[in-house]
């Protein structure tokens, strides 16, 4: 399949609870030639905002963008090389106002 160069893509969002079958679904989408996948791109934002301690916290924060607004604008909604993008996230990643239209309703 030909790769697309910076074209607008269709995004499939999956917001799930931790320890669900969402990772299995992500892996199945990753097998498609026309699909990019993002695995919890807002998780570093969650770690930064909440200060939650995890053994891998500092390493993850040094390697991934932790500004949620930047992640949404520059990663999740950026142009892509494939036709589709599957974006898996857990609800804990929505702890900061990210400018997502449906976010306020989800956090009530």
From TrEMBL:
The keyword Transmembrane helix does not apply. Pfam families: Sulfotransfer_5. Belongs to the class-IV pyridoxal-phosphate-dependent aminotransferase family. GO terms for biological process: carboxylic acid metabolic process. Transmembrane segments: none annotated. This is Branched-chain-amino-acid aminotransferase 2 isoform X1. Keywords: Aminotransferase, Transferase. It comes from the Eukaryota. One of its GO terms (molecular function) is transaminase activity. InterPro entries: Class-IV_PLP-Dep_Aminotrnsfr (IPR050571). The keyword Transferase applies.
């Amino acid at each position: 399949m030909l790769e697309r160069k910076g074209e607008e893509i269709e995004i499939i969002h999956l917001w799930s609870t931790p320890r669900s079958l969402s990772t299995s679904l992500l892996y199945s989408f990753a097998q498609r030639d026309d699909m990019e996948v993002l695995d919890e791109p807002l998780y570093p934002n969650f770690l930064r905002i909440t200060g939650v301690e995890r053994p891998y916290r500092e390493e993850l924060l040094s390697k991934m963008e932790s500004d949620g607004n930047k992640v949404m604008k520059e990663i999740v909604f950026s142009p892509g090389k494939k036709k589709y993008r599957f974006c898996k996230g857990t609800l804990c990643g929505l702890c900061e106002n990210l400018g997502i239209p449906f976010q306020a309703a989800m956090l009530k």
